[in-house]
Design brief:
Shape: elongated
Largest sheet: none
Helix content: 40-55%
Radius of gyration: 34 Å
Number of domains: 2
Structural class: mainly alpha
Number of strands: 0
Order of helices and strands: HHHHHHH
Number of helices: 7
Distance between the termini: 120 Å
Length: 180
């Protein structure tokens, strides 16, 4: 006996067709793209943190990163400290900024100076003042970097002058604080 199946009406669809999608405005599209990019950036940030978690890093000192070009004509003259050693260190710092920094010699062929060379030039023959300034500078260096043999060895250990110049500036503040 053959089975009979009830006939289905082929003329009327069972569900209504979906309505055409309304066009998104530019702001809506930008919001979707922003959300998608934010999600991708968050995933990338997590992946970067996971992939670099085993790497030992030191904190970055912004004074080593943020710099501006220095030219002698654009640099204001230093505002002298009232104490002689601090004023000498400030003048030495200004000389290094404007005249250039070097290593391995007191003065190079271009006239750039090392830390001690700048102090010596600004001391203008006053050996007592020069010695006091070098002593305060060495103390400032040791406070920041630990056991350092001498100012020249510290100066010569650097490939660039940014850190040595910063130490001369810090030493000027230290000398002023001490009333030297």
């Amino acid at each position: 006996m053959p089975q009979t199946h009830p006939a289905t009406d082929q003329t009327a669809p069972a569900t209504a067709p979906p309505a055409p999608a309304a066009a998104l405005s530019l702001e809506e599209r930008l919001a979707f793209v922003n959300a998608a990019m934010t999600m991708k950036l968050d995933e990338a940030k997590v992946a970067y943190e996971v992939n670099t978690a085993h790497i030992d890093t030191e904190p970055v000192d912004l004074a080593d990163v943020v710099t501006v070009p220095l030219t002698p004509t654009l640099q204001p003259p230093p505002q002298s400290y009232p104490t002689p050693v601090a004023a000498l260190l400030e003048r030495a710092h200004h000389r290094l900024l404007t005249g250039g920094w070097c290593k391995d010699v007191l003065v190079d062929e271009d006239g750039a100076r090392c830390m001690l060379g700048a102090i010596r030039a600004e001391a203008r023959g006053n050996q007592s003042l020069e010695a006091d300034a070098a002593s305060v500078l060495l103390d400032a260096i040791r406070r920041k970097f630990g056991d350092v043999d001498s100012v020249p060895s510290f100066n010569d250990a650097w490939a660039g002058g940014r850190t040595p110049l910063r130490m001369v500036d810090l030493a000027a503040g230290l000398a002023d604080t001490r009333g030297l």
